[in-house]
Design goal:
By secondary structure, the protein is an alpha+beta fold. It has helices spanning about 5-35, 40-90, 105-110, 115-130, 130-150, 150-155, 160-175, 190-215, 270-275, 305-330, 335-360, 365-370; strands spanning about 180, 185-190, 220-225, 240-245, 250-255, 265-270, 290. The structure holds zinc ion. Zinc ion binds near residues 231 and 286.
Length: about 375
């Protein structure tokens, strides 16, 4: 088996959370379905709440162990990647310490770097902070469905209790476990939030290692990559030269990398810290920086591709629809609703295939699979 990449580990984290979310939803649906025609249904369900809660706590305890492990591996690999990137850049002199070393060695080396230990702990804590909300969601959802399925409409026989429960449940399920807010105040659903946090954390670890290596080697200038389908926030920074220390700015003269005595003038757009504060390397950003080598690295000429960005956003939206209908299918109370949901999943999958073909995009199966039921 090939060694995992940082992307693989981000996908693993997203899958772990999606699987836990689905498992909780299925447990709720299974409990609500049991004895739904009994006159004592509502009171029996409230008694079953304690058992459901304990089951959820077990699922989350397991999730915490699995995700902590994946977080450590992901940060260690990101560190390795950041270090390797610095070593492989053009014009690099000297040794290449990280090359050929396994993730285990990097993991052992992690405690030596306080900044990276902090990044790993931050990511683990961010993910762990979702667990309280997950438990609250389970409790609220369960109680709301019971309350709505016991309303007068149901007592008068205008709709069956099963249908009433299904409708109330669908609304809650569609919203999913949501309401996670990032530092910028943006709201996310659980799976997207986990993915964003994992990408942001691993990217920060890679960028930090990379910058540390360059500074150690006496380099200060880096250049921002040109990303296909860049987001509007990052467009102004593509192929711009930035200073790691912030000491260089404006038009700066530096000696050519290979020609002694020859000076090269370069425009430094700002510091990396300033660029990040202005939006570069935001959550889910696809940009990176690499060493700027005087006289050798070309500056400017970034390709702008706003349509590509729109197409990628549309892909995300379709993936959300697929996940929503899969949840409905797998955690249905009413069998009729389950059938409808299955057809909807197929419809959206066909739409995704067509969209991907039309725009030459890459399909990311983990974003569509909300975790197979166990
Ligand atoms: Zn970006």
């Amino acid at each position: 088996m090939a060694a995992p990449t940082v992307d693989d580990l981000v996908a693993t984290l997203v899958e772990l959370y999606q699987r836990a979310e689905l498992r909780l939803a299925r447990d709720i649906a299974t409990s609500l379905k049991a004895g739904i025609d009994s006159p004592r249904w509502a009171s029996e369900k409230l008694i079953a709440l304690t058992a459901l809660r304990m089951q959820a706590q077990r699922i989350l305890a397991k999730l915490a162990i699995d995700s902590d492990d994946a977080v450590r591996q992901a940060i260690a690999l990101a560190v390795q990647r950041g270090g390797r990137r610095a070593d492989e850049e053009p014009g690099r002199l000297g040794d290449t310490p990280a090359r050929g070393q396994g993730a285990r060695l990097v993991r052992q080396a992690l405690p030596g770097n306080p900044a990276l230990v902090r990044l790993a702990r931050e990511l683990a804590l961010t993910l762990r902070s979702t667990h309280v909300q997950i438990l609250r969601w389970q409790l609220d959802a369960y109680r709301k469905v019971i309350a709505e399925a016991a309303l007068p409409d149901v007592l008068l026989g205008l709709q069956t209790r099963r249908q009433a429960a299904q409708h109330a449940w669908e609304r809650l399920l569609d919203r999913g476990i949501a309401g996670f807010v990032d530092r910028g105040g943006r709201r996310w659903e659980l799976a997207s939030y986990v993915e964003m946090a994992a990408r942001t954390g691993t990217m920060a670890a890679a960028v930090q290692t990379h910058a540390d290596r360059l500074i150690e080697a006496g380099d200060d200038l880096v250049i921002v990559s040109d990303s296909p389908r860049e987001c509007p926030k990052c467009r102004p920074w593509e192929r711009k030269v930035l200073s790691l220390s912030g000491k260089n700015r404006g038009d700066v003269q530096v000696e050519h990398a290979t020609r002694d005595g020859e000076m090269v003038t370069v425009h430094v757009a700002g510091s990396l810290v300033e660029a990040r504060a202005a939006g570069l390397m935001h959550p889910n950003c696809t940009h990176s920086v690499s060493r700027w080598t005087p006289g050798i690295t070309k500056v400017g000429n970034a390709n702008s591709n706003p349509e590509g960005y729109e197409a990628k956003q549309r892909q995300r939206a379709i993936e959300r629809h697929i996940r929503r209908w899969k949840r409905r299918e797998q955690a249905a109370i009413d069998p009729a609703a389950e059938k409808v949901a299955r057809a909807k999943v197929r419809e959206w999958q066909a739409a995704l295939r067509q969209h991907i073909d039309e725009h030459g995009l890459k399909r990311l199966p983990y974003r569509e699979q909300i975790g197979r039921a166990r």
